[in-house]
Amino acid sequence: MSRVKLRVVFLLLLALAAGCAAAQTGGAATSKAPLAFARAEKLKRGINASEWFAQVYDKRGYTPEHFQARTTAEDIALIKSMGFDHVRLSVNPQPMFTAREPNKIPAEYLGYLDAAVKMILDHGLAVVIDLHPESDFKARLANDDEFVEQFADFWRALAEHYSTWDADRVFLEVLNEPELTDRYRWLGVQMKLAAAIRQGAPAHTIIAAGARWSSDDELVFQEPLHDPNIIYNFHFYEPYIFTHQGATWGAYYWHWLRGVRYPSTAESAERAAALAPSEVDRLQVIRYGRERWDAARIESEMKQAAEWARRRGVPLVCNEFGVYREYSDPQDRAAWLHDVRTALERNGIGWAMWDYSGSFGVVTKKDGKTAADEGVLRALGLK
User: Fold this and answer.
1) What's the whole-model pTM score?
2) Are 373 and 361 in contact (CB under 8 A)?
3) Residues 260 and 372 in one domain
4) Distance in angstroms (rounded) separating the CA atoms of residues 255 and 249
5) Domain containing 36: what range?
6) Residue 19 resides in a domain
7) Based on the domain organization, do 128 and 186 belong to the same domain?
8) CA–CA distance, 189 with 186 (Å, rounded to integer)
9) Which of 174, 220, 222, 265 would be 210's cystine partner, CB 3.0–4.6 Å?
């Protein structure tokens, strides 16, 4: 080959490499996943509908009466009127998962789920179908390859069922908060599940996440899947000492905590720390105070997530954030929600608050009446 031809080939290869580098660094981010970016515009301001098709701990379980009463058309209309644009619908697959025949999803159960999805769509909202099983289900994914195969078959069948529904407004989320601590295992499992979803619903947008409860520091370990029609998500509850004070799940010592303030100060944290009987736990609370959690600290967390997405040319949402309301100061809770929401928006990240009417809710339900928390709505920039 002549020197001229070699030089031409070299220049072509150099241009190709430069183009790839530009895409990876955000020079042409949206060109990699234009459909996913366009659909992400429908996930700007969302709310989680919990305790409807998941987190049902009543002895009677998932009954028709529960599906009809927990969240109604009036609730969805209220969600729309508040200014939300989508609902993340938590769906526990376990009640409709048949071992060894997971692709045979009970038609009756699907009918209840269809009615809920249709109700949301009929009010002009987008809907994320979020598979939200209990921990025992997720634990099997960590070490049981055959169970991963079964779950993939289940997802393929469910995705095929929704493949004829509005692909611009129905999103399919692989798994809520994977509890796999092996990041590499989760990369493989998620790849398998996403491929099954894509086989069942070729046109729909998939929502994927990092390992270990979908935290933002796990997101930055994740590498994009080989599918351009995917939106990536993370959850944000930092610092848990504030957002989960008094909670009886998660870290055991949280249930001791009361009066943890936001923004954090050394003085207020030391007062709250005195309630924890263990010195180790008291130290965690004292450190929270000295770390000075405030709007600037939250902004720095969001920038890291946004930069991860920008470099990879993928859309990003935060589809859970919130504060357990039973023991948090209402003004502190609103301040944290405001700081998280504004940091997300400044970094171009869509969001969905946790949750509508549960223990983190934007509304309370009592004696048949629903009341909106005006402070929370203001913090979210809604009416």
Assistant:
1) 0.91
2) yes
3) no
4) 8
5) 25-238+294-379
6) no
7) yes
8) 5
9) 222
Question: Residue with structure tokens 């508040």?
Answer: 82
Q: How far apart are CA 84 and CA 93, in angstroms?
A: 26
Last residue of a domain, one of 226, 259, 292: 292
The tens-digit pLDDT sequence of the chain (383 residues) is 444 343 433 333 333 343 343 344 343 344 478 999 999 999 999 999 999 999 998 888 899 999 999 999 999 999 999 999 999 999 999 999 999 999 999 999 999 999 999 999 999 999 999 999 999 999 999 999 999 999 999 999 999 999 999 999 999 999 999 999 999 999 999 999 999 999 999 999 999 999 999 999 999 999 999 999 999 999 999 999 999 999 999 999 999 999 999 999 999 999 999 999 999 999 999 999 999 999 999 999 999 999 999 999 999 999 999 999 999 999 999 999 999 999 999 999 999 999 999 999 999 999 889 999 999 999 999 98
Measure Cα distances from 350 to 46, 174, 229, 299 in Å: 8, 18, 16, 15
| 330/186 same-domain check | yes
Compute CA distances 291 → 178, 261, 262, 266, 284, whole Å.
28, 13, 12, 8, 11
Q: Three-state SS for 346?
A: helix
Instruction: Extract the tokens encoding 292.
Output: 């000075």
Number of domains in the chain: 2
Burial of 57 (0-12, 13-18, 19+ CB in 10 A): exposed
Whether 250 and 284 map to the same domain: the answer is yes
3-state helix, strand, coil in the chain (%, to 5): 50, 15, 35
DSSP 3-state of 190: helix
Element housing 191 (H / E) = helix 183-200
Q: CA 286 to CA 175: how far, in whole Å?
A: 34
- Residue count of the chain: 383
Identify the DSSP state of 351.
E
Q: Cα dihedral sign for 93, 98, 102, 108?
A: negative
